[in-house]
Write a structure and sequence with these properties.
alpha+beta; four-stranded antiparallel β-sheet; 3 helices
Length: about 160
């Protein structure tokens, strides 16, 4: 951070959040709170102004984690689950619960009959049932990273998620 008072305030904020003992969801809460603090700093600190855009970029560059702020070291990190590690709930950077993977599942829509239109196209009479081909199911990816959905339907790559254990 470029401003020592802002850095101290961020450290105090993160310490206060840790004292609530939220578990590993602390990171999501700290990140959202820190972004609000930075974005509103000048509204409450006219005698100690900051370049809010630059400080938000500094926070984002540090991935929102106070690497070493007033002697505190964050132990929270983006999700990286390895076999044998603890499991828990996944959260998006916006703090919302991850509720689904964005999967594609092929299916075969069943047909009852058909007729040909005057222009040569087919008019299909659908049975109203689709046979799902579960063996073809796959999760959508972006640059090799799986896509997940939060409770509001927003899409997130797996490297953006946080694991709360």
């Amino acid at each position: 951070m470029n401003n020592e008072n802002l850095e101290a305030a961020l450290g105090d904020l993160c310490e206060a959040i840790r004292n609530v003992t939220l578990g590993s969801i602390e990171y999501v809460v700290m990140d959202a709170a820190a972004r609000e603090l930075i974005a509103n700093w000048n509204d409450h600190n006219a005698d100690d102004p900051i370049d809010e855009v630059a400080e938000l970029a500094n926070w984002a560059e540090a991935e929102g984690r106070p690497k070493q702020t007033r002697g505190l070291k964050s132990q929270l990190a983006p999700c990286s689950v390895q076999p044998g590690m603890a499991t828990g709930q996944l959260y998006a950077p916006n703090g919302k619960l991850i509720t689904a993977a964005k999967d594609w599942i092929p299916g075969n829509a069943l047909i009852m009959g058909a007729s040909r239109n005057a222009d040569g196209s087919l008019e299909i009479e659908w049975e109203g049932e689709t046979k799902i081909c579960w063996d073809g199911q796959h999760t959508e990816t972006d640059a090799g990273l799986r896509i997940f959905l939060d409770e509001d339907g927003n899409e997130w790559r797996e490297d953006q998620l946080f694991l709360a254990t």
